[in-house]
Amino acid sequence: MLGLCVVIVAAVFAGTASADPFVGPPICSSAGMALSGNYNEITLSGNAYVPEGATLNVRGNLRLTAGSCLDAFSLSTVHVHGNILVGAHAVLGLGCTPGSIGPVPPCREQTTADTVDGSVIAHEALTMYLDGDTIHGDVVSTGGGPGPTLNPYINFPIKDNTIGGNLMVSGWQGAWFGVVRNVVGGKVVLVKNVGLTAPEGVPDSTEVATNTIAGDLICLDNSPTAQIGDSGGTINTVGGAKVGQCKAV
User: Fold this and answer.
1) Quick check: helix, strand or coil at residue 237?
2) Is position 105 within any domain?
3) pLDDT grade, residue 106 (50/70/90)?
4) CA distance 154 to 247
5) Cα–Cα distance for residue pair 173/117, rounded to 1 Å
6) How far apart are CA 136 and CA 134, in angstroms?
7) Would 1 be classed as within a structural domain?
8) Which of 6, 13, 96, 202 is close enough to 100 for a disulfide, judged by CB 3.0 to 4.6 Å?
9) Do residues 144 and 124 make contact, with C-beta atoms less than 8 angstroms apart?
10) 56 lies in which domain range?
11) Is residue 238 part of a domain?
């Protein structure tokens, strides 16, 4: 019988560090090491990226330990058969679409097909960039962010995903947060998230737009209040109830 293989990516990559090969907004503070191939499990400590055109297949869980960063914001393919677990101050960039973050995302005309068979669960993460992913379980994020500041400018986009379970984000604080163009099989709960981006003096964060949600859409105590904003999106389609701030969206 094959034993469980746990891959530990060390925090320092003196001998294996390389430049991130694709164009796009920086996700990690440094590129770290290239990560691709087949693994039973991965526990990531430090920075790593999935190169353009590469495939990363994880049969079990993918864990990002405190302060680590995985940049899969590229034209690559990632399949995690278990869960993705994101630790304190860690950063996860998974998938990209033409509507992803940044002025020149790598997926100008394409959408990646990254898949998580389990859930994405984050506790006190610095941020996550979830774009164009299929997540069969839940997405749950509690706390985290750099705090209510524009320096550093860190945002938290959840865009163009298909989420089979629930989407729940609470207590994140940073520059911008938004939930846009997702299909969610359960409910969406957004509570006590704070964003500061304000172009031309108009609050621009907590954008909740163009989502199709089978269950309830619940928004409480977010600052600014949940809104369509300048996303160019439309009112959300909700199978359950709209509660709190999200009654207007």
Assistant:
1) strand
2) yes
3) low
4) 27
5) 28
6) 6
7) no
8) 96
9) yes
10) 6-248
11) yes
Residues of the chain above pLDDT 90, percent: 71
Q: How many CA atoms lie within 13 A of 133 on its CB side?
A: 32
Angstrom distance (rounded) from CA 236 to CA 56? 33
Residue of 49, 84, 44 whose CA lies nearest to 66: 44
Dihedral (Cα; 23, 97, 81, 163), 10-degree rounding:
150
Cβ atoms of residues 154 and 145 within 8 Å:
yes
Please write the tens of the pLDDT for every residue from 114-135.
Answer: 999 999 999 999 999 999 999 9
Written as six digits, the tokens of 22 are 């694709």
Residue in this structure with the two tokens 């089979």, named with its chain if needed: 164
Structurally, the chain folds into a number of domains equal to 1
In the predicted structure, residue 220 carries a pLDDT above the cut 90: yes
Contact 138, 186 (CB under 8 A): yes
Q: Is 204 in a helix, a strand, or coil? A: coil
- This model's pTM is above 0.85: yes
Q: Exposed e or buried b for every residue in 9-22, given b needs 16+ CB within 10 A?
A: beeebeeeeeebeb
Give residue 78's Cα distance to chain centre. 14
Please check whether residue 184 lies inside any domain of the structure.
yes
